[in-house]
Amino acid sequence: MSENLLQIKNISVTFKTRHGVLKAIDDLSLNVKKGEILGLVGESGAGKSMTGAAVLGLIDPPGRLSSGQIWYKGQRIDQAPETIRGHEISMIFQDPLVSLNPLRRIGDQLVETILTHMPITKAEAVDRARKGLEEVGIDPERINAYPHTFSGGMRQRVVIALALAPEPALIIADEPTTALDVSVQAQILDLLKQLCRERGTSIILVTHDMGVIAETTDRVGVLYAGRLAEIGETRDVLTNPKHPYTKGLVASTPRIDASSFDKTLYQISGSMPKLDAMPNGCAFHPRCEFALDKCRIDRPSIIADRAACWLLDGEETLL
Amino acid sequence: MMNRFLDSDFFHDFLRAPVALISFCVVLILVLSAVFAQFIAPTNPFDPASLELMNGFTPPLEANMFTGEIFLLGTDDQGRDLFSAILYGLRISLFVGLMAVTLAMVLGVMLGLIAGYVGGWLDNLIMRLADIQMTFPSILIAMLIFGIARGLLPPELRYEMAITVLIISIGLSEWVPFARTVRGSTMVEKEKEYVAAARLIGLNRWQIMIRHILPNVLGPVLVIATITFALAIIAEATLSFLGVGAPPTEPSLGTLIRVGQDYLFSGEWWILLFPAVTLLALALAVNLLGDWLRDTLNPRLK
Amino acid sequence: MLIIILRRLGQSILVLFLVALISFLIFRFVGNPVDNLMGQEATLLQRAALEEALGLNDPLYKQYFNFVWRAIHFDFGNSYRGALPVAELIASRLPATLELALTSAIFALVFGVITGIYTAIKRGGFIANLILSTSLIGVSLPTFLIGVLLIWLFAVELRWLPSFGRGEVVTLGWWTTGFLTISGLKSLILPSITLGLYQLTLIMRLTRSEMLEVLRQDYVRFAKALGLSNKQVHFNHALPNTLVPVITIAGLQLGSIVAFAIITESVFQWPGVGLLFINAVYFVDIPVMSAYLLLVGVLFVFINLLVDLLYLAIDPRLRDSQLNGER
Ligand SMILES: Nc1ncnc2c1ncn2[C@@H]1O[C@H](COP(=O)(O)OP(=O)(O)O)[C@@H](O)[C@H]1O
Ligand code: SF4
Ligand SMILES: [Mg+2]
Q1: What is the reported pTM?
Q2: Closest ligand 1 atom, CA of A174?
């Protein structure tokens, strides 16, 4: 399980605007191992979706990958990302209501995707499409139905079938359940997890829900203002967060065991800085209770393979 | 989010700003030369005494056979100095356009205010009328009104009243965008506190509408007026070109182009070209100006 | 589905009655049917008798329904000029206008959609920008001037194409067509371009902005993420979604094309109903004006209805929503 499937090396994503160049992702590095589920968590605007888009080369102009490299199975892919889309890495978007082409039957969309990647006949592709639908719990007889005839949860199942159809080794799932009814969120996540485990497919699971992270992921990366704040085994990060921001996140997550009456939740004061008003030094320092003088001047990089925080400096031995 | 919008607009503004400036200068020059046509034009093209048939079809930059004066843009079939004719024609085109826009604006703004403020069946009536009118192209409406007006006028007045009829036809065909915009803004404005306050101190409906609501809708109205001005100039030229607009006694640019078309085959190209270029410059400049205004003021126009 | 069609049909009929009312008012009050039939020298008594015979003393609503009744039976009275039945005049000229309008519409749609897609896909490219700025000039150019300039270039200077008329036509029953002869086809070229150019720029801009909008949609990003080629993404996914609104608007423009044909027909002396109408305006031939208005009204309403139905046929969401009551 330790083999690196995907390596993101020091990438930055920038937008040229009239206020100058904004950095939506700033010098971010990540690895995804074979077969693992890596969570990416952070508040809205932290750059989670942008990271996923960067891997697949789907950043919309005026944004662009301005520096860094992305490697997949030992090959550099950031210069020709279209070569790995689908059959190596595919993606699931947040809102299944707008992820499927409304004018085309789900079967057509499945068959088209399969035929694009596999040298098989149309009839074989249709067979595969039916099997794919069955696996995600959809009656294969509905292969000729249009997307609008399915509920949101069912549509996300179709989306999962589509994403798995070209047999990718990695799926980037960008908040796959956020837009769904609470009642079906867990089912969809379980389904995704089960299907990927069976196939040995890795997942980058983007979410802003610490509960989902806890239940689903093997490792987790915490993003803050376009930078990686902390990364590590999910259990370690949740039980022993190192970065003050992660500490806040964990403290503000309701415990399943706590009674709903006596949970006075912790709140981090302030809000994430805007891209055009990024503070010097550590991006978190205006909100950080532990901020040192150094934090206002120098930006910490990931220390001890764990967190970007000066508090860890020289503490490596204590970890 | 907002920043993203501003950024793309800003980029366009920057590209277009010089265009807007040039357009403005072109419009200004054309308007001034029309207003001061008497002083700029070498001759009065409609004074029969100044016409010599022998000068007919003089190409540009050639001399008058009698006085030796140069005809800058040549002459038409009757020996009329084309440069002077264009200046006077421009004056008629601009006058008709301006009056038509004014009519459309006054009518549209009033109906829009009434529809928005009073509401109810009156609103329904006005807006249904607008809907039906909008299904037909306004040039067709203008032609129809022109025909009806001619039918209602006694034949002896048809030439005399032609310009007035033209203005009314075009004006009546263009009121809808004004009414729609003003109605929309009025419905928003009338819910605001200051209108309620004005009502409390005893101002009546019309006072409220004119004094309080009107100033708030002027921005979008100005944009529509500019765009409509371009449309009106084109409509006037089209009608006159088709022979159902300005009479031969008061030729506009459209009339001059109509005349010019007859001489294309015999090689007297200038009679067509110069009025056409003038019209094109005017229409293009006003259009670009309107586009720029719309993008800059950026009111939510339909 | 049936209900919505019936409802649209009802609205259409209402609009038709309104247009007919305006037509009637013009016919009845702008023109004077008695003057038209008798001339100025008739005695008062004769005039009164004719007024009675024509039903001009009936209550107005009755006259209106008579007018509609006759219109349904293609009876619009006689033209003031030449005293021919208006219906016959229009029928003899309708094929010319419809063939011209159809050709221009196809020209505008095909080239408008192609350039629209091109300028959307190649957004910011040199040729795309060139096409866009040229189209801005195209919008400012009055239709008649386009026609005159085309005549100048292709008929006067180059002598490639005829400058007026329909060329040779072939008669098929009551229809005359220019589609079947070389000269007929050659005659169609300049007028069709003149008439279609404005709609072309409109369709191009619409296609472009719709396409750009669609390309931002998640299902397009998803299709890309699934590894479909640019060609597949653009043509299998983006294009159908772009075309739904484009076809709707383009369809609605068909009515405008017929109305704008008035101008083109005048420039090219094209013997269609538009030329008939403009002459009617010039000579104050009220029955022709009134009938033309009605004709265009019917055409517009018919087209609107057709476009609605087409929309239902293309978009599965709409098709089903009428059945299940879900949106
Ligand atoms: N076109 C753009 N111009 C400028 N900034 C943008 C643009 N698109 C996205 N961003 C910025 O990129 C950052 C990252 O966004 P995103 O990855 O969608 O966040 P997340 O998915 O974590 O909520 C945000 O701060 C957003 O404001
Ligand atoms: S680096 Fe400093 S400011 Fe940033 S999180 Fe650590 S202690 Fe807080
Ligand atoms: Mg996101």
Answers
A1: 0.80
A2: 21
> Rounded distance, CA A155 to CA A95, Å?
9
Which of A12, A13, A15 best tests ligand 1's pocket when mutated (most atoms within 8 Å of CB)?
A15
Look at B6 and A18 and tell me if their CB atoms are within 8 Å: yes
Out of B151, B243, B279, whose CB is closest to C145? B279
Question: Phi, psi (5° rounding) for residue A57?
Answer: 65, 35
* Count of domains for chain B: 1
Enumerate residues with CB within 5 Å of ligand 3 (an ion): A 49
Query: Contact A56/A89 with Cβ under 8 angstroms?
Result: yes
Report d(CA A176, CA A192) in Å as an integer: 9
| Distance separating the N- and C-terminal Cα atoms of chain B | 22
- Read off the pLDDT of residues B179-209 as tens digits, 9 standing for 90 and up: 998 888 888 877 777 777 777 777 777 777 7
Residue B103 forms part of a structural domain: yes
Q: Rounded to an integer, what distance in angstroms lies between the CA atom of residue B247 and that of residue B46?
A: 13
Any bridge partners for residue A207, and if so which? A41
pLDDT at residue C82 greater than cutoff 90: no
- CA-wise closest residue to B244 among C219, C282, A142, C162: C282
B154 at interface of C, judged by CB pairs closer than 8 A: no
Instruction: Tell me which residue has tokens 């020289």.
Output: A314
What are the backbone angles phi and psi of residue A220, rounded to the nearest 5°? -140, 140
CB neighbours of residue C131 within 10 Å:
19
Q: Do C232 and A90 touch (CB under 8 A)?
A: no
Three-state DSSP at A196 gives helix
Mean pLDDT of chain B, nearest integer: 80
Locate tokens 């219906």: which residue?
C87
How many CA atoms are closer than 13 Å to the CA of A192, on its beta-carbon side?
A: 35
Please indicate if any CB of chain A lies within 8 Å of the CB of C51: no
Does B150 lie at the interface with C, CB-CB under 8 angstroms? Answer: yes
Residue A10 has pLDDT above 90, yes or no: yes
CB-CB neighbours of B35 under 10 Å: 15
Q: Is A225 touching ligand 1 by the criterion CB < 6 Å?
A: no
Rounded to the nearest angstrom, the minimum Cα separation between C225 and chain A is 5
In-domain check, residue B193: yes
Position B213 in a domain? yes
In whole angstroms, what is the distance from residue A16 CA to residue A31 CA? 28
Is the confidence at residue A318, as pLDDT, over 50? Answer: no
Q: How far apart are CA B293 and CA B298, in angstroms?
A: 8
Report whether residue A244 contacts ligand 1, using a CB cutoff of 6 Å: no
In angstroms, rounded to a whole number, what is the distance separating the alpha carbons of residues C154 and B275? 20
- CA angle at B233 for the pair B228 and B237, rounded to the nearest 5°: 145
CB contact burial A260-280 (16+ within 10 A = b; e otherwise): eeeeeeeebeeebbebeeeee
**Per-residue confidence at C299, pLDDT binned at 50, 70, 90?**
confident
| Domains, chain C, ordered by start | 10-69 (no CATH), 91-283 (1.10.3720.10)
In a domain, residue B157? The reply is yes
Ligand nearest to the CA of A230: 2
Give CA torsion, residues C154, C159, C160, C162, to 10 deg.
80
User: What is the domain extent for residue B294?
Assistant: 86-301
Distance CA B101, CA B138 (A): 13
Q: Minimal CA–CA distance to A117: which of A90, A81, A79?
A: A90
pLDDT in tens, A150-166: 988 899 999 999 999 99
CATH code, domain with B217: 1.10.3720.10
This model of the complex carries an ipTM of 0.87
What ligand 1 atom has the least distance to the C-alpha of A47?
A: 17
Q: Using the mean position of ligand 1's atoms as its centre, give its distance from the Cα of residue C140 in Å.
A: 39
Q: How far is CA A61 from CA A64, A99, C122, C130, C238, in A?
A: 7, 20, 13, 21, 18
